[in-house]
Amino acid sequence: MDTYQEKSNWKIYLAIMGVLILTASLIYTTSVANKLKEGERQKIEKWILAVENISDVEYLGDLTLQQKITENTIIPLILVEDSGVIQMGLNYGEDKEFDFEFLQKQLNRIKAGGYAPVPAGEGNVVYYEDSSTLKMLTYFPFVQFGLIAAFVAFGYFSFSSARSSEQNQVWVGMAKETAHQLGTPITAIVAWIEHLRMIHEDNEETAEILDELNNDVSRLNLIADRFSKIGAIPELKKTNIYEELENMKNYMQRRAPRKMVFEFPGLEQDALYAQLNAPLFNWVTENLLRNALDAMGGTGKISAKVTEEKDFIIIDISDTGKGIPSNKLKTVFKPGYSTKKRGWGLGLSLAKRIIESYHSGKIFVKKSQVDEGTTFTIKLPKS
Questions:
Q1: How far are the Cα atoms of 55, 59, 73, 332 from residue 67, in angstroms, in the given order?
Q2: How far is CA 295 from its chain centroid?
Q3: For the segment 235-284, what is each residue's pLDDT rounded down to a tens digit?
Q4: Does the domain formed by 237-381 have CATH 3.30.565.10?
Q5: Nearest Cα to 281, choosing from 363, 340, 351, 218?
Q6: What's the Cα-to-Cα distance from 265 to each of 198, 270, 282, 365, rounded to whole Å?
Q7: pLDDT digits (tens, 9 = 90+) for 106-133
Q8: In the chain, what are the domain boundaries?
Q9: Where do the DSSP E strands lie in the chain?
């Protein structure tokens, strides 16, 4: 199981845990709310009885308890005659107790909510709704879940940001150290090549071999230069896109199997310019082409297409290889992702950093079908 599959599984586990917490909270709160709801109905019944006792002129007992009951109610209610005429309201505010237009709207809302009225004697009924305390308790699980989710999201993004920054520092440090370590042996190899050239200056075969060695050393110098630019602000120059693609095609074609077909736009096209750092841009295209060659196993076609879109130059690089599974499309540019057994998974991650951080562009998988091929798109601002 790769790192990103494991990370996705953890997200699923956390989501399931969150749902279980919310469900348990809902069950518990619903149970408590039902008990409070039953208690509030009993309070309404006691309120009706207390009012009846106070209104009963023949009742000679102590009315202190009844008065307490009628004074302390917090449940919004409306007293309605059997004819449907509203007599009064309670706990909607002192100025609303006899505002019959307002009370009628509340009564319609209460009826629509399915609240069962309580008989109040002489054909009257009392309609009531949940108290503010009961309403807050009903919504409490959702508020609780929202706060927990916000806290978890804040912690997750903070941790991810810190980890991403740390990873960037590691990649930059490793790249610069690699460039530094390459410098010494490259210098020594150049010196040995020149020494051998002086010794065998009349030997054409040796001179040809030394020329090829010199080309490879120049390539090593280019690679070291690329690594040294990671983490620094590279110098961008106005560059013809077609020329860079042609140079990279020629370089890769000489090193590709003979059955590989390259279809790239030629130099006869009208020049399209972008602000580029050529060594870094070539690193990106070389990485895409190497991945395409690995995906096709020695036979197939690699094509490049350049188009314009307002202020941008669009470069599509396609292959006829094995493609990328749809569930991997979001992770191909992340450090550590690789389909190769010995791959480090840094190529596309660095390509994304070069295009987006240094060239203010975009790089993404435009389309991919398993066993049919993949198209990567590079989007660059025009010069």
A1: 11, 14, 11, 74
A2: 28
A3: 899 999 999 999 999 989 988 898 899 999 988 888 999 999 888 899 89
A4: yes
A5: 351
A6: 42, 11, 16, 21
A7: 888 888 887 788 888 777 888 888 888 7
A8: 3-136, 137-229, 237-381
A9: 77-80, 86-90, 118-121, 124-128, 237-240, 260-263, 273-276, 300-309, 312-319, 362-369, 373-381
